[in-house]
Structure to design on (169 residues):
């Protein structure tokens, strides 16, 4: 994430102008604007940029990415409870929904936007997972090991072995 900023509500809320006056601005045609607005209104959220997309974090954990890609809008959510629903959608509409290891990607246009109730549900879940610090692997009984912790363990083990070899010599 390169920069952290709070979203200007007037940029996202079609019923508020840049001075915060309601009902003065034209209605937006970007279907991601309501998503961005909702994400920015959760407590303790920072908005930044990752590549060409907007990213939203809470407590240093990403929970939502949104932007344009290939002429369509793209939204990414981290899901756990809704994964079965996302898998079913990916099977039915593979061009619109993809399910990865931790993230679910939805692609859509202004003419065929993502269903409001669906993205609201997924965004709420994604935020709550990030806030709780859970991931798919951490939600189970197995503890998630980071690469740096694994590398540190290997280095310590290697040093201990070489020290033992020196003592024998």
């Amino acid at each position: 994430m390169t920069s952290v900023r709070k979203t200007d509500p007037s940029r996202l809320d079609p019923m508020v102008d840049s001075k915060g006056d309601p009902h003065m601005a034209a209605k937006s045609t970007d279907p991601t604007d309501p998503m961005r607005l909702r994400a920015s209104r959760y407590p303790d959220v920072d908005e930044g940029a990752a590549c060409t997309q907007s990213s939203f974090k809470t407590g240093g954990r990403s929970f939502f990415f949104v932007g344009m890609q290939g002429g369509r809008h793209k939204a990414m959510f981290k899901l756990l409870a809704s994964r079965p629903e996302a898998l079913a959608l990916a099977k039915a509409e593979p061009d619109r929904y993809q399910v990865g290891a931790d993230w679910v990607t939805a692609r859509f246009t202004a003419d065929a936007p993502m269903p409001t109730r669906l993205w609201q549900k997924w965004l709420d879940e994604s935020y709550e997972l990030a806030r709780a610090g859970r991931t798919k692997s951490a939600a189970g009984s197995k503890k998630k090991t980071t690469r740096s912790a694994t590398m540190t363990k290997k280095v310590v083990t290697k040093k201990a072995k070489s020290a033992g070899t020196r003592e024998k010599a």
Notes: The first strand starts at residue 45 and ends at 50. The helical segments are 9-12, 33-41, 83-92, 116-132, 136-139, 147-168. The domain at 9-134 is CATH 3.90.1150.30 (Aspartate Aminotransferase, domain 1).
